[in-house]
């Protein structure tokens, strides 16, 4: 009870401490509210502008059930078509003729199997190329290991450009250079992977302990000896872990890269879309989904073993 | 006094195991390497990759790359406005896609967090739901939405939004699970309802994390937004694939450089926002 009486006593004394505190508090609140208001207004303006660019307010003509055409807002106009599309993708399966229905659904399974193997091959080769390229370039691209400033600058810019340009754009370019087929896909995903892995690897390199390198240098080792015996043993577990993660990403990437003609299952998506073979699409989804899940699971198990190795002294 | 080669050889002869790994380790290593090299050679054979083809392709790439200099500079306003419009569409796709994805993912993420949703069955099935959404490529979602909403950026926005629901819901629910339960207990002790516990106990802890996830994904969506146009879902990708199809390589390279510049700018800007809005909080954590 003394606390309250003290409080009253103080405010009765009126030396202004409380009043000053209240003023400062109100001031802070006002400032926070103003920042919040300005932020909200900016956000609303950006939102309205992007929504306008993004066709959010577009109206489209739709055919009504009675045949008349009417103007409707684009989102409710498109949703029924989306539903129709999804319904068309569901194959007709009945319990009595399940085998025949499944055979009908996966009617191109031989072609798909070949293309699926091709997809995984593309992912494997692209990952291998990316690992080699990224590994070699990660040492000159690391601030603590690079032999000189110019090498650092050039390798970093090269890796940045390689990863900023999406693999699908590289594929568009390489399909022209290497003609249609999986080779263009391998090159495209490989180049993008070099950029992505080079960055991750060089960050690992920047966090290493420099003392082993100094040891090798003191024993008369060259720059290559220092990297080989001082740096590589330290970074290897991390590199294996990142590589496995990238392999999963590349399986997804190579499954769609065929859309622009660079091999793999993606070309089947394009055919199924343009011939409106909706059940083929759902069959392809299932194939890719299962493959990616299996690879995810397998490489996760492997990665945990690698991380376990790393944690062991 | 340093060791001579003879002394090293003598030492190697005396204790061979100190200089090489034991046999099983070496054997495993050989098997692994020959497996990988064999796989690689099989792929080379299967894809018919020969030095001649590589050389020919690189020569063609050299020709294509030679169009980079001098880069194409748009002298008229009309075609340049098209390019700017494409870049703007890409940004709009990334911005609205990220925003819509986050808005839908936010409530779903609470269903997937262990410390909020205590019904194991419901939580785990929600989590599998996120996985299913994430398994579908954004590009394929874009193809589907083009069928429903027609060509244009709206299909791209919805494609990114849907695939981000899966990503955000997973990341958000992990962020929620990583919060401390002590503030929640505090709110509970002073008589707060379950909703107030979440609002005042968990909210202040996760808000900076959510914001930083949001910004990171916005950056990555700017990158993926650039390719959606290749299938017709709006953005700069459409112009780029159009120029490449017409063999206008100088314009294509200029567009690629504009994309790179835009991605740089976004990275820099969001880094600025991140350090301003969450830098202070993350230091105290």
Explain how this protein is built.
The complex is a heterodimer of chains A (313) and B (285). Chain A is mainly alpha-helical and 313 residues long. Chain A is built from twelve helices and two strands. Chain A is flat and about 85 Å long. Chain A has a domain at 109-311: Orthogonal Bundle (MetI-like fold), CATH 1.10.3720.10. A two-stranded antiparallel ribbon of chain A has the order 1-2. The model of chain A has no long low-confidence stretch (mean pLDDT 84). With 285 residues, chain B is mainly α. Chain B folds into two domains: 5-59; 83-283, MetI-like (MetI-like fold), CATH 1.10.3720. Chain B has twelve helices and no strands. Chain B has helices at residues 5-14, 23-46, 51-66, 77-111, 120-135, 138-149, 153-177, 182-189, 194-228, 236-245, 249-277, 279-284. Chain B is flat, with a radius of gyration of 27 Å. Residues 281-285 of chain B have low confidence and may be disordered. Classes of the chains: A mainly alpha (313), B mainly alpha (285). Chains A and B meet through helix 2, helix 3, helix 5, helix 6 and helix 7 of A and helix 2, helix 3, helix 4, helix 6 and helix 7 of B.
In short:
The complex is a heterodimer of chains A (313) and B (285). Chain A is mainly α.
């Amino acid at each position: 009870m003394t606390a309250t009486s003290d409080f009253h006593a103080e405010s009765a004394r009126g030396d202004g401490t409380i009043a000053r505190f209240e003023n400062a508090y109100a001031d802070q609140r006002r400032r926070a509210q103003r920042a919040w208001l300005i932020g909200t207004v900016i956000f609303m303006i950006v939102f309205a502008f992007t929504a306008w660019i993004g066709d959010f307010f577009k109206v489209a003509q739709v055919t009504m059930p009675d045949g008349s055409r009417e103007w409707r807002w684009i989102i409710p106009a498109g949703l029924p078509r989306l539903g129709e599309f999804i319904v068309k993708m569901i194959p007709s399966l009945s319990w009595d003729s399940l085998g025949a229905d499944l055979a009908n659904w996966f009617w191109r399974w031989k072609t798909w199997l070949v293309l699926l193997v091709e997809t995984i091959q593309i992912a494997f080769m692209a990952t291998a190329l990316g690992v080699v390229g990224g590994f070699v370039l990660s040492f000159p691209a690391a601030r603590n290991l690079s032999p000189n400033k110019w090498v650092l600058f050039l390798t970093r810019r090269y890796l940045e450009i390689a990863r900023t340009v999406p693999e699908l754009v590289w594929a568009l370019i390489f399909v022209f250079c290497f003609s249609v087929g999986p080779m263009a896909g391998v090159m495209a995903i490989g180049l993008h992977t070099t950029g992505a892995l080079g960055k991750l690897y060089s960050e690992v390199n920047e966090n290493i302990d420099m003392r082993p390198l100094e040891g090798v240098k003191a024993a008369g080792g060259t720059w290559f000896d220092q990297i080989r015996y001082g740096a590589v043993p330290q970074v290897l577990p991390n590199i294996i872990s990142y590589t496995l993660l990238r392999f999963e990403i590349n399986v997804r990437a190579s499954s769609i890269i065929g859309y622009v003609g660079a091999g793999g299952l993606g070309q089947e998506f394009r055919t199924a879309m343009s011939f409106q073979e909706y059940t083929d699409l759902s069959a392809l989804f299932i194939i890719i989904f299962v493959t990616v899940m299996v690879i995810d699971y397998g490489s996760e198990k492997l990665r945990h073993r690698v991380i376990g190795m790393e944690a062991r002294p | 006094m340093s060791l001579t080669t003879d002394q090293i050889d003598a030492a190697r002869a005396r204790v061979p195991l100190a200089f090489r790994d034991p046999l099983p380790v070496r054997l495993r290593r050989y098997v692994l390497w020959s497996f990988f090299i064999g796989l690689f050679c099989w792929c080379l054979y299967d894809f018919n990759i020969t030095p001649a083809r590589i050389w020919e392709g690189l020569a063609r790439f050299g020709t294509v790359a030679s169009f980079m200099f001098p880069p194409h500079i748009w002298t008229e306003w009309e075609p340049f406005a098209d390019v700017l419009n494409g870049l703007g569409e890409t940004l709009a796709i990334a911005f609205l896609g990220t925003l819509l994805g986050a808005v839908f993912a936010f409530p779903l993420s609470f269903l997937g967090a262990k410390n909020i949703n205590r019904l194991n069955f419901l939580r785990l099935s929600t989590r599998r739901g996120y996985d299913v959404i994430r398994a579908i490529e954004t590009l394929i979602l874009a193809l589907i939405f083009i069928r429903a909403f027609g060509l244009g950026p709206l299909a791209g926005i919805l494609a990114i939004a849907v695939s981000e629901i899966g990503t955000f819901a997973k990341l958000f629910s992990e962020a929620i699970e990583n919060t401390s339960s002590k503030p929640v207990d505090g709110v509970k002790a002073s008589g707060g309802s379950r909703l107030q516990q979440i609002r005042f106990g968990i909210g202040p802890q996760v808000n900076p994390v959510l914001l930083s996830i949001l910004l990171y994904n916005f950056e990555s969506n700017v990158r993926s937004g650039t390719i959606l146009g290749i299938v017709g879902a709006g953005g700069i990708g459409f112009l780029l694939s159009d120029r490449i199809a017409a063999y206008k390589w100088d314009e294509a390279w200029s567009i690629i450089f504009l994309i790179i510049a835009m991605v740089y700018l976004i990275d820099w800007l969001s880094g600025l926002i991140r350090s301003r809005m969450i830098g202070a909080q993350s230091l105290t954590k």
